[in-house]
């Protein structure tokens, strides 16, 4: 079930909110848990037991960890092994088999056909949340969940279950027990507004840009102008698609009384790759920092080992995004430029406009690896970009051109103005005139989004495949 689908918007969400908001406080967690299980079951009925059984095992291990100080490390390794083995089996088995088959065929040996394993929706996201929980309990940064139901609610909470933000149990533990004033009507209205803004980002901007990006990346013969237009469209599509999902998840959580961490902060105005990763998919980059980079030694050791740690983090980050050499190369692309940024300060030495422009175009070039189906496809796309041949053949109507213009404006207008806009979007202490203005904007955007969904099938979220 997709947040931007009529099924979710017209049926699931209104029914859930009505039941949730009318339920007594002591029942709200139960309602949220049942709705979350139903939500995941609708999209992945074969895999809901993977989520629930592995969650139950985490809970048992964490409880034993708290009771048996002498076995904490062994129990931690057991929990990590189970979670990472589950992720590897479902996400990377096919990739491993395909590469072994290629090697066998290269040397002329036969490799037997094996069954293809399907990928559970959102497994990359909820596995990282489960790993952070076990590590935090081991470090005694948080006590174990007070009940299995509390832990399953944390793991399966539907607003962020499929594509984040990646949430840590220690940040949600108190909210699971008592959401207090965060559940007041001002907060819920602010959550509805935030959700609607995210929906508009997805339906009105990202999906429109997909009509330019998809034909370019799927074309068998591609001219240079088409390749550039497709790449620029995809660069903004993936931002508005993913940040739109994050806005919707944060807004849904806010309507339920939960506070989720922010996941984006105007990434395309970044000055360098260090700055970019402090603005893009923030919950992933901070997770990688706290649970991988720092335990490896971070930057507290020699420059060579710091460089090694950066490369480990970004190669694994690429592999986390997808079981494909494309994603590994994409991770290496970012690792290389982050290393240059860190050890030379190149981007900070440039004039502001030049550093932003260079960062943007290098990030955009990297999206080719991210979106192409295979390495040869990516290489062909790069060849088309720099072939300087052909003419524009993609159909660009007035609507698509206007949406692309809006995407550029919304991504690049000044940071000070963005801060004011963000404060307006996320604020819950509104004056009456602001409430009226937001209510009108919510109504207008919902009508526009539902109208668009009525005439054109919505695109799935890009990050759903991870």
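-> sequence recovered:
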């Amino acid at each position: 079930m997709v947040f931007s689908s009529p099924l979710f918007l017209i049926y699931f969400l209104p029914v859930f909110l009505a039941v949730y908001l009318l339920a007594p406080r002591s029942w709200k967690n139960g309602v949220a848990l049942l709705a979350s299980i139903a939500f995941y079951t609708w999209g992945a009925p074969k895999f809901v037991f993977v989520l629930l059984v592995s969650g139950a095992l985490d809970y048992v291990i964490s409880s034993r960890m708290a009771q048996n100080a002498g076995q904490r490390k062994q129990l931690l390794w057991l929990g990590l092994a189970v979670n990472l083995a589950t992720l590897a089996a479902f996400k990377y088995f096919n990739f491993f088999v395909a590469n072994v088959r290629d090697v066998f065929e290269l040397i002329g040996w036969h490799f037997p056909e094996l069954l293809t394993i399907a990928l559970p929706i959102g497994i990359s996201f909820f596995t990282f949340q489960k790993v952070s929980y076990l590590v935090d309990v081991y470090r005694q940064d948080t006590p174990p969940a007070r009940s299995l139901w509390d832990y399953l609610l944390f793991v399966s909470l539907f607003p962020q279950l499929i594509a984040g933000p990646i949430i840590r149990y220690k940040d949600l533990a108190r909210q699971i027990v008592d959401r207090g004033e965060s559940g007041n009507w001002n907060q819920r209205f602010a959550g509805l507004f935030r959700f609607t803004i995210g929906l508009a980002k997805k339906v009105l901007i990202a999906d429109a840009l997909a009509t330019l990006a998809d034909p370019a990346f799927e074309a068998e013969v591609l001219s240079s102008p088409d390749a550039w237009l497709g790449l620029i469209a995809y660069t903004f599509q993936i931002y508005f698609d993913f940040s739109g999902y994050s806005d919707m998840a944060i807004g849904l959580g806010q309507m339920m009384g939960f506070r989720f961490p922010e996941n984006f902060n105007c990434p395309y105005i970044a000055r360098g790759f260090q700055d970019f990763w402090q603005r893009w998919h923030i919950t992933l980059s901070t997770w990688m920092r706290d649970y991988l980079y720092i335990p490896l030694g971070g930057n507290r050791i020699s420059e060579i080992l710091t460089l090694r740690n950066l490369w480990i983090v970004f190669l694994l980050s690429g592999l986390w995004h997808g079981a494909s050499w494309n994603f590994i190369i994409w991770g290496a692309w970012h690792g290389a430029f982050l290393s240059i940024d860190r050890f030379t300060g190149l981007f900070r030495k440039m004039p502001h406009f030049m550093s932003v422009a260079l960062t943007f175009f290098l990030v955009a070039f990297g999206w080719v690896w991210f979106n192409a189906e295979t390495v040869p496809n990516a290489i062909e796309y790069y060849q088309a970009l720099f072939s300087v041949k052909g003419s524009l053949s993609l159909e660009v109507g007035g609507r698509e051109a206007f949406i692309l213009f809006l995407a550029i404006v919304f991504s690049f207008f000044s940071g000070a103005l963005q801060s004011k806009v963000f404060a307006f979007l996320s604020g819950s202490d509104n004056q009456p005139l602001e409430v009226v203005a937001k209510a009108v904007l919510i109504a207008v955007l919902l009508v526009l989004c539902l109208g668009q969904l009525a005439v054109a099938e919505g695109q799935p979220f890009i990050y759903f495949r991870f």
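The first helix runs from residue 6 to 22.
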